């Protein structure tokens, strides 16, 4: 016959076991959710390579050696980092690259999108260059995916930050090291190009104004040849990858004038101004470096054109203006 004490003890033991079972079940569910929301490191590595092969030459918002250093730290830590800038940058790179794949892994990229948005939203209003790099990547990502709402949202934040940091102006008496100076230029002109193409897509005027811009273009030299102390020697026979971006930046300047003409407050449409803009576009075509020209054989593109930088240049322009 059970005593009152023994009944109480059994009841207490049963409650403890029930709590233990609930805890085990919750732990297993949490582990399963974390596994389901984790990305395979090989998947990330493959997308990283695609980004720097296909996208970075046109949108050099990141210094490649620095970005790969961040990536190695991320991989060495098995992706376990609390640095929001690192998380936003890595997963934005993966998402951008994945959207250019013929057969994207929708589940992996859904996880990826969630991760970069969570990380970016936590730092979006920080006042530094790292944040601006992430915001610029986010604009590019949203343009590719056709997310018009987020294009406008991130673009307003990014351009406000760019103006705050003074990226659109020559630095004057402020002495910056070579790498910082070049990085700022590349971020700004990438942001300018995305502002231009997204304005064309959304049928609005640009937020950045040419009349306020005094900063010049970045140098025609790839990131691995730039250090804080200066420029390293580069092979004269090999065209730079950033030459793709420089061509795109100059095309954006011409398109910006057409947009300004289209969406200006002036009621009168003057055909002479559009003719002048057309002349600038013709001049841009003439000045394109030889290695970026498309060569047609019997009025047809060569079979391997999909892997050439000229084709990619055409591809980026068509994607961003769709």
Automatic annotation (TrEMBL):
Keywords assigned by UniProt, alphabetized: Nucleus
Biased composition (Polar residues): 1-15
Any Pfam family matching the protein: Fungal_trans
CDD domains to which the protein is assigned, alphabetical: fungal_TF_MHR (cd12148)
InterPro entries documented for this protein: AtrR-like, XnlR_reg_dom
Occurrences of domain Xylanolytic transcriptional activator regulatory (ranges): 151-224
MF (Gene Ontology): DNA binding; DNA-binding transcription factor activity; zinc ion binding
Superkingdom per UniProt: Eukaryota
GO biological process entries: DNA-templated transcription
Annotated segments matching region Disordered: 1-22
Designated name of the protein: Xylanolytic transcriptional activator regulatory domain-containing protein
């Amino acid at each position: 016959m059970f005593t009152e004490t023994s009944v109480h003890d059994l009841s207490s033991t049963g409650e403890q076991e029930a709590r233990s079972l609930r805890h085990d079940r919750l732990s297993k569910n949490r582990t399963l959710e974390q596994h389901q929301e984790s990305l395979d490191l090989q998947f990330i590595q493959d997308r990283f390579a695609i980004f720097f092969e296909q996208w970075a030459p046109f949108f050099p918002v990141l210094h490649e050696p620095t970005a790969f250093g961040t990536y190695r730290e991320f991989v060495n830590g098995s992706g376990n980092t609390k640095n929001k800038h690192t998380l936003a940058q890595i997963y934005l790179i993966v998402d951008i690259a994945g959207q250019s794949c013929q057969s994207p892994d929708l589940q992996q990229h859904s996880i990826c999108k969630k991760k970069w948005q969570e990380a970016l939203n936590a730092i979006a209003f920080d006042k530094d260059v790292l944040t601006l790099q992430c915001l610029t990547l986010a604009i590019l990502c949203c343009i590719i995916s056709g997310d018009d709402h987020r294009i406008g949202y991130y673009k307003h934040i990014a351009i406000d930050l760019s103006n705050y940091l003074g990226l659109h102006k020559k630095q004057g008496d402020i002495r910056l090291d070579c790498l910082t100076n070049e990085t700022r230029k590349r971020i700004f002109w990438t942001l300018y190009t995305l502002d231009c193409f997204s304005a064309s897509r959304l049928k609005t005027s640009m937020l950045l104004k040419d009349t306020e811009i005094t900063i010049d273009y970045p140098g025609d030299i790839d990131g691995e040849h730039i250090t804080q102390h200066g420029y390293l020697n580069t092979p004269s026979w090999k065209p730079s990858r950033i030459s793709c971006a420089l061509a795109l930046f100059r095309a954006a300047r011409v398109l910006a004038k057409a947009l300004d003409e289209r969406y200006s407050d002036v009621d009168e449409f003057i055909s002479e101004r559009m003719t002048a803009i057309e002349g600038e576009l013709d001049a841009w075509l003439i000045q394109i470096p030889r290695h970026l020209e498309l060569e047609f054989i019997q009025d047809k593109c060569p079979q391997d054109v999909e892997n050439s930088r000229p084709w990619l240049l055409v591809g980026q322009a068509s994607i961003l203006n769709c």
